[in-house]
């Protein structure tokens, strides 16, 4: 396979040789998206958008204790509440608007690649954090740090493998683009972080992904390698490389080269669990993936990975169509921000992005995003239409004297008097009820196998929607900030909606 975009002398360094001990941890769900970066801009709104995986202790002011308050994670090893993030990717349309490229999961490789005489690979210490890459980079420079950044043009159906490149691919990738970040593995042994979030770490001397640590950083730590998968193929009909169209993708920093790809890591491991994995995976060809349990070394979380989701925390549209990238980042650093761009945004839980408030109009309160398996969380499907709204579904259930109303798959309305236990919303996650209502695109109406769930309040009680508390916030405690006595009680009868 021929690679493009980097000098010949470093071609061999771009591949990650996976014959040395490693494990792969899949991260199928996203914990947060938006302009948050607890490492670079703690407690503030970040300058550009990120996509983050890992524990729900993620918070703008997070520390190690925040990670340990996580109650769920979007990754697949019990004992790891770390957070992993990179910049979001956007499609830049020919009319000058931006659309966020969907990301369909990620994988984190833990490898044992760094060495130093008379020392063994160690786990990350408590409070450790680091970044890799340079968001301001717009050209290739032959350093270990640059070699650690790459992109893979995916083609799952093709006979020939596609090219792996340092910049963003210039061709239309049939199965999307895999963004890859390899972090430095050699620690100075003293600092958990540094002002630039990188100087406490170094890449090995021999190569970015293996070899002896420099004497300035003589402590080999476990190596981590990100693979994040962007569905750029969703825009394959919007541009034609064969006709000379330039590649249309740009990172949220304004980087259309890909050289500025970067990643961030906050350690949230239970340290003995991580060290145990390192100590047991020491032999050649000892790789494993968590979907085969890594020979029993690790356990799966016993709670919902894909449904683990924090509420939106920055009140701005990051999806598109957008006149400018979030944070007003120009593609060319010499260009001024768009005159139509709103750079500032408010910080806080954005409740109108989660549910529609019908407490005053219908006396129903939002409970949360509920799982809806084959046996059905609510027993009665009362409607399915292309003009479904939250108000319409709640009104249908209210007229039939049902206590619960649930919306699913954009256009379906379910009612019930009793909630199947499997459908009780999780107290610490907004879930994945992300489909827009067929009759009102500003509202959310569940998703596939997910219900946006509402419940009738008592007439003599104040009706109040769920309020979420962030597990990673200082002093946080997980709670449901509504009182159960404000609701009508569930009925044992499921034959009809009559209130007895």
Structure description:
The protein is mostly beta strands. The chain is built from five helices and 29 strands. 7% of the residues lie in helices and 24% in strands. It is globular. 46% of the residues are buried.
**Overall morphology:** globular
* Beta-strand residue fraction: 15-25%
Report, as a whole number of angstroms, the end-to-end distance: 72 Å
What is the radius of gyration computed over CA atoms, rounded to a whole number of angstroms?
24 Å
Mean pLDDT reading = 86
Number of helices: 5
Strand order in the largest sheet: 11-10-12-17-7-1-20
How would you classify the helix and strand content by structural class?
mainly beta
For the sheet with most strands, the description reads: 7 strands, mixed
Q: Poorly predicted ranges (pLDDT <50, ≥5 residues)?
A: 1-19, 480-484, 492-500
What's the helical proportion of residues? under 10%
Produce the secondary structure layout.
Layout: E1 22-27, E2 32-34, E3 50-54, H1 64-68, E4 83-87, E5 89-92, E6 98-100, E7 103-111, E8 114-115, E9 129-132, H2 144-147, E10 149-153, E11 164-165, E12 177-182, E13 186-187, E14 201-202, E15 211-212, E16 219-220, E17 223-230, E18 249-251, E19 263-266, H3 271-280, E20 288-289, E21 314-315, E22 346-347, H4 359-362, E23 364-371, E24 380-384, H5 390-399, E25 404-408, E26 412-416, E27 436-437, E28 440-444, E29 450-456
Parallel strand pairs: 1-20, 8-15
Antiparallel strand pairs: 1-7, 2-3, 3-4, 4-19, 5-6, 5-18, 7-17, 9-19, 10-11, 10-12, 12-17, 13-14, 13-16, 21-22, 23-29, 24-26, 25-26, 25-29, 27-28
